[in-house]
Amino acid sequence: MTSNSLYPQAETIEQLRQNIDAVRQRIDQACTKAGRDPLEVRLLPVSKTHPAQYLRQAYAAGCRMFGENKVQEAYQKWQELDDLDNLKWCVIGHLQTNKAKYVARFASEFHALDSLRLAQALNQRLEIENRDLDVLIQINTSGEKSKYGIAPEQAAKLITQLEAFPRLHIRGLMTLAINSDDTEQVRSCFIKLRELRDQLKKIAPPKMQLTELSMGMSGDFELAIEEGATIVRIGQAIFGTREQPDSYYWPK
């Protein structure tokens, strides 16, 4: 969902802390409206475009995980911030198979699995690194050709195939809603993801826990929470409006 209001840049630790608190209050309010426990919803700060030194301020403000779209940018930040205790990284953008080695080396979560081939590449690299990875399958709920993710009707087949990759722990689904001012169009994307997750639970392998729904960003996360989001990916409402347009990080 688009927004005409611009988020001011947070330039200090205190401003970042205030923005995080404001977002958490909005999460709490959305949960109350939906009759949900706020503890069911995790805030994932999305730090794309922001340099490592700035993320040190966000860490000081309380952030312990950052979401990044471009894996090589995230990998560089991971290296620069490796002195910070308990800092984790989540890759949320489209990943080419030849870059799976980076995710396998440093990420704790990956929210954009969209092919069997990528699952194979990730599992192979994770074996080499002797690491495991929490993974969400990206679903294209809007049907837009400009968005990555598999079609909803392809999810059941992929779910059954992923049991072959023990290094991947499939936790749930992720989506990007349609970018529209039409609230009901946006909401329909979130409903579709929740209903698909509930269907997949019935056929998923016994050890596969499909509990997570990563959906909702700065402009639409209240709607996502109303429809069952367990992870909301918030960038601009915490850090401020990005200089780069969304198309730079969500390429067509």
TrEMBL record:
CDD domains: PLPDE_III_YBL036c_like. This is Pyridoxal phosphate homeostasis protein. InterPro entries: Ala_racemase_N, PLP-binding_barrel, PyrdxlP_homeostasis. The modification N6-(pyridoxal phosphate)lysine is found at K48. Keywords: Pyridoxal phosphate. It holds the Pfam family Ala_racemase_N. NCBIfam families: YggS family pyridoxal phosphate-dependent enzyme. It comes from Denitrificimonas halotolerans. Belongs to the pyridoxal phosphate-binding protein YggS/PROSC family. Residues 19-242 form the Alanine racemase N-terminal domain. Pyridoxal 5'-phosphate (PLP)-binding protein, which is involved in PLP homeostasis.
